[in-house]
Amino acid sequence: MTSGFWSMGGYARYVWPCFGFAGLVLGWNLWAARRLLMGARMRAARALAMAGDA
Amino acid sequence: MWTWFYKLASPPYVYGVAVALRPWLLGTAALAMVYGLIAGLAFAPPDYQQGDAFRMIYVHVPAAIMSLSVYMVMATASAVALIWRIKVGHAVAAASAPIGASFALLALVTGSLWGRPMWGTYWAWDPRLTSELILLFIYVGVMSLRSAFEDPARGDRAAALLAVVGVVNVPIVHFSVVWWNSLHQGATIVKLGAPSMPGSMLWPLLSMWLGFMLFYGAVLCTRVQAEVLNRERQAAWVREAIKS
After folding, report:
1. Nearest C-alpha neighbor of B88 from the set B154, B6, B165, B161
2. What single DSSP character describes residue B175?
3. Are A9 and B51 in contact (CB under 8 A)?
4. B30 at A interface, C-beta within 8 A
5. pTM of this prediction?
6. Taking a contact as any Cβ pair under 8 Å apart, which residues of chain B between 105 and 144 contact chain A?
């Protein structure tokens, strides 16, 4: 059963890259959004600190 | 009755909603996708014509539907921002563009991987494939236009205009398989009448679709938070918001 599952009826070289690429795209979305938010928080904190100094 | 609509124009309110919704959306998206993947890969029967190759439907179709749905969200938010001058509309549109573009790219790549064993080619200048590629180009155009201006407000307006005009491509993508001769098969679930799939194949697909929608919601929440912070970084409420 296990080898049949991984071979996907002979279509493994299409099916698994398809799911792998989907995982990559979803993972990138999470990572990039998180990174964007961290950057925005840092810039906002810096702007507030500068406004406080002025 | 319209109080909720007016509240959506308030950046601190939208920021708060995004913070509260994100973990719930991400958690339910994960549950829906895990069920969809297990049921679709391990328990759905092979297709009588395509065998196990049909299982690529579980990422290809949700990605393709979401590439169109996200575009509609982006265009609607852009129209709202242009008509009522609601800045949050621009933030939602800016947040949606990269997510929609990634779904369009995913639909194209997975479609290409599916096309090779079924049609004998990774790519054909077919109406569905070509219009989906144009959709990806429009997404990239909207993102590039937004960042091409020194004045962010002008960039927002120009990108919003392009997003609204680009809506014309959405029905072309959806109906391309009806209007022209196409290698691509017709609609499976987004159509009038019952879906042309048995339940054992359909439920995992619906679950993956739901998972992709919730995932979009979760990523949108994170990106909207960032966009609102970038636009409102001088505002007093931001001090409290970034502490949390």
Report:
1. B6
2. H
3. yes
4. no
5. 0.93
6. 105-106, 109-110, 113-114, 116-117
